[in-house]
Design a protein that fits this description.
Blueprint (H helix, E strand, L loop, with lengths): L4 H14 L3 H15 L27 H13 L4
């Protein structure tokens, strides 16, 4: 097994700073990295882009600025 030289030096430095062994630093890092996978995944985000019968006429979903402008008009009026 080969470990990147810079990574190995960082691990050795961490071991010296903590006054522990290189093996302990590697074990702790592995435990931390592997435990991250055990965390429950967040529920998938669902973006609702329509109401009722679908997307409003004249709205291009690829133009987010147009979506924002249409929402502002709907929420605050035409501003005129």
């Amino acid at each position: 097994m080969a470990i990147d030289d810079q990574l190995l030096e960082l691990a050795k430095r961490r071991a010296r700073e903590r006054k522990t062994t290189l093996g302990r630093v590697v074990e702790d890092a592995l435990r931390a990295a592997l435990s991250k996978g055990a965390v429950a995944a967040a529920p998938a985000f669902e973006l609702v882009t329509f109401r009722g019968d679908g997307v409003r006429e004249g709205i291009d979903l690829d133009k987010t600025s147009a979506l924002q402008a249409a929402e502002d008009v709907e929420r605050y009026g035409s501003g005129g």
